[in-house]
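In this supplementary section we document a worked example of the pipeline. Step one takes a protein sequence of length 445 as its only input; no multiple sequence alignment statistics are reported here. Step two produces a three-dimensional model, which step three serialises into structure tokens for compact storage. The input and output of this example are shown verbatim.
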Amino acid sequence: MTTHKIKKGLDLPLAGRAELVLAAASEPAEVGLETAEFVGIKPKVLVKEGDSVQTGQPIFLNKLDRDIVWSSPVTGKVKSIEFGARRFLQRVVIENSGSDSYVDLPTASGDREGVVKSIKGAGLWPMFRQRPVGKMPMGDAVPVAIYVNGMDSAPLAADPAFATQDRKDDLQAGVGLLKQLTSGKVYLTLRAAGDNQSDLRGLDGVEVHDFSGPHPSGLVGTHIAEIQPLKTGEIAYAISLVDVARLGEWQRTGKYPAHTVVAVSGSDAPDRKHFRVRQNATVSTLTGGSAMSGDHRIINGDVLNGYVVDPAGYLGFCNKTLTVIPEGTDKRDLFGWAVPQFGKMTNHMSVNFGLKKKEYVVDARLNGGHRPIVNIGSWEKVFPLDILPTYLVRAIQANDIEEALKLGLLEVTEEDVALCTYVDPCKIDVGEIIRQGLDMYEKEA
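The serialised model returned by step three reads:
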């Protein structure tokens, strides 16, 4: 076991962390499978409105690789199929009958090709993310390593180790599948001196690495850079510990793992706990519906790298955290930045005269407008990778893909630079620019 200490970074002490209590969420009236979080796919719907479907039945597939399907997490009736511009599938909504009737799914066996095809056919391939690029894996390239993330250092994020306690059999079965997908090692990353890890450290077939230090010590990009940096032409897979347990559940039972664990956190969350909830359930299943009718922002994910979801929307396929914070609509600070903000959270503690609190209640206001990039070193102070993010962003904005690659474009995704966006006084969305650079690379490659 190796311990890695991350020195650069920043922990945001936000109020509203989810308790280490695992509760069963109520059954949702409906679920919604959405395509927005799977950038680059070309979906084709396989059902019609009014069709009856079983749990685990394919609902749509990816025309770029027709073996990759998304399966229904409930038994019920297709309520609606929503399309966007150019008839691009956006969402399939399925009414929940209240009782599960499972499709028989063949478990994985044989060589790597057979295991990959089985996982894709079971609707579980979208759990994986490929590095570089940070999208669902496409193509036949074999990863040199697989990273199982058993920690999450993002603000108010779920605790994967707690969410998978008492599931050692599922985890071990999942690890067995991962070992068949790679030519290299399966790395399990855990928080140094963390809780609920006794089963995890006893898993066979994984190499455990401990990480300590501030965020982003819990991100896969940081883990890859510390453990086994990718060489030119190499790829790696990343997957959450919770999803490994779901993979193992399918492998052991032959049934689609319809439930996951989501932490509800944030200062405005009505019930801050870890919930075992049906995949792609309505957000109101965890927020209490009408109780969230006020001025709130609901985020699928954490405050740094999540995306806003409507109170009537649905949990994401890969979602492990649901964060609820005040929106801050029509709220104004008298004289703005010109008045000392005593006790206000800021990366520059001189602004609030060093009066730090243990936890802060923050809202979603931007607190300022966009400005030209000014290189004052704020990004570099919270960025632990051996990359100069300011020059990387400038190369992308200049459409100089060759220079961007030299500056480390393929070592990062949006989540790796989310802290840069937070501390940036110029209000630059660094993650959006990085995604533009990665899309440019894919197009030219």
